[in-house]
TrEMBL record:
A zinc finger (dksA C4-type) spans 87-111. The keyword Zinc applies. Coiled coil: none annotated. This is Transcriptional regulator, TraR/DksA family. Residues 82-113 form the Zinc finger DksA/TraR C4-type domain. Gene3D superfamilies: DksA, coiled-coil domain. InterPro entries: Znf_DskA_TraR. It comes from Billgrantia gudaonensis.
Length: 113
């Protein structure tokens, strides 16, 4: 049984919206993650370093997005299995406000500490 105090349909809709947001962000930042190609005769060393740093940051952001997408998929699977809202450590219900704040949370506040 999913968390008794939550509207599961609303949670599913929120998770789907979040997933679409992340996918859109990923698509819009694709060019920032592309290989840095700079003409070394016309671009200074600091400009190249800035471009490489920007690329590294964009790649790190993409990794975080992909992790969030995996967490969303896992949350949707827990809903399908009727396990959404249960703490993965103690098995107690995670607080309603905690889940509303972050629908991807896996542990109750006591186990998260």
């Amino acid at each position: 049984m999913n968390h008794p105090e939550l509207d599961t349909d609303a949670v599913v809709a929120r998770l789907h919206d979040l997933r679409e947001e992340l996918r859109a962000e990923s698509e819009s930042s694709r060019s920032a993650r592309d290989t840095v190609m700079l003409d070394q005769t016309s671009v200074g060393r600091l400009s190249r370093m800035d471009a490489l740093q920007g690329q590294a940051m964009a790649k790190a952001e993409e990794e975080r997005r992909q992790l969030s997408l995996k967490r969303i998929t896992a949350a949707l699977q827990r809903i399908e299995r009727g396990e959404y809202g249960e703490c993965i450590e103690c098995g107690e219900w995670i607080g309603k406000q905690r889940l509303e704040w972050d629908p991807l949370v896996l542990k109750c506040i006591d186990c998260a500490e």
